[in-house]
Structures
1.
Amino acid sequence: MKNRRKLVVRLSKGEGEDNEKEKVEENEAVFHKKLKIKLKEKGKEGRLILLEDYLDYFIRGNKTLPPDFPTFVREIMGLDEREGFLHIRIWHENSELVDFATARDYEYKIDTYD
């Protein structure tokens, strides 16, 4: 686990003030999350159903398609299927993918990468 580090440098001017330097620098660890979403059917057909549902979710919700949607489609079609689950990397638990899975009744769970 990466540690969080804080370095403080204070800049002050004048004779009556301390001439210390403090700078705030934080190294925060970024932990990717893993969304494990169960396909409604196994194999390529299940992936296509997931992508159709995802596209429908955007259209019916009057949401804008993300600019990286074609990349997302290629990623979904190329992911390994583990016991009917796809493991998709997400940045946080409030991801649009989690909202989609909840709205469309997909079975899912979220894990943190080690």
2.
Amino acid sequence: MKIQDSIFIAVLAILLLLRKPKWFAVAGVASLIVSIPLFTVWIFFTAQRLIWYAAAFFFLSLLFSLRRPGKVQ
């Protein structure tokens, strides 16, 4: 397990405790922003992982938003 996997699991655990869809979306956008410089310096493995993490964060944001319609915080 690499360092980015450990960080992802820790952030995911914290966000699952909070259960706020907005924070999942913010984490997804942050993952995308962090991956951009990694792509420019040709660190594709880590950048690709960050893109997958962003997709997971967006998916969980969508799931929590659908669970509580009208209560996006």
3.
Amino acid sequence: MKRGIGLFLAVICTGIAFYSSRFWLFRLWPRDGLLNIEFLRPQGNILSVVLRGTDARPFELLIWAVLVFLSLTLLQWLWNRFLG
């Protein structure tokens, strides 16, 4: 049961990570955004929108990789701490 929950959490986190990156290929909802929230665009790439107009924009991929690594590390630490 714990492995199934862990696998489910890993799949959800992977989906969120890819949605926030430039690697998102799917358009699963209309142009208005998910639940009419304009920030949740169908083409993903949220990090690019957040970094637009800043000096960090050229480092988008590096920032994305670091954030994904840190979030998965935190998720593993929480898993081991509470369910491990």
